[in-house]
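1st attempt posting a full record on here, be nice pls
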Amino acid sequence: MLIFRLPDSDVFHTLENSQEKQVSFVSFDSKTVLDFKGSIKEVLREDIENQIVSPKNKSSLIEIGKETQDSYALKISQAQDFIEKNDLKKLVLSRRKLLMYLDIDSQKKLSLTKSFLKFCDSYPSAFCYLFEKNNEIWMGGFSEVLGKFNKKSNYFETMSLAGTLPLEETWTDKETEEQKAVTDYIQSILRKFSSNLKVSSTKDLISGNIKHLKTDFSAEISPESLDKIISELHPTPAVCGFPKELCAQGIKSIEHFNRELYAGYIKVETEDFIYYFVNLRCASFFKNYAFLFVGGGITMKSDAQKEWEETELKSLAIQNNLVFE
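the predicted structure (as tokens):
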């Protein structure tokens, strides 16, 4: 079962009766690919509400326990050591936040389909999804586009998105430097595949209770280059760091858990477009609890307290939209 909604749309979609591969979820390390087959069709909001999607299994990972502010601060310190030792600009660290439903309301049951609809209402400009496959249930959504390819015009669009602050705060050098590193990286890749690259000015992107810095790119490319561009772009410095092979090693040695689908990407192919969405604000759901995946860019200027608060803010994207009844 898969339900999704494209950004800035009121229409919900599902897949039905076809062997055609239309939607794929690719893990952060690109080793896992979940394919969903079927032709894309519209599904009504009322039909989604009436579906029952309930987690049956427990995860063997529960023993890992909750990430504390102290344990996360230690990881940030390790990340800064790694940044200094390797002369990096930043490393992106993630947290897997354990959310026990019993802490919220043990008398009521979580409705995942109603949570999904509430999440969509809260984030109208995000790509949002809910799926159940191989006993796994995931929900998520975010506005970051890894790529969008127009099959008719051969135009490819992408964006650099980095830096995070609460809406009321003012950008500092830390966020602008972080975002510039992502912008430079994407620009260097696209120039290899196109001679007419267009780059926008940098603007604020509001996402619920937080904001990011965003720069848009568009370029005419050859359709044969598409897979190569995506493999070069992923994972971007916004979810990993740069150079990505070295940063991925650092992440593995510091985080001590598998990111799974978090910070991977979702490919959706329609009649006119091929979309690639970065899988950021997302969670995997189990019988009595969920893992909420969030992260942030760590630099030498990072403050452990502020980084913790940033991840807590990001986790509310899903947590505040869970519906119990």
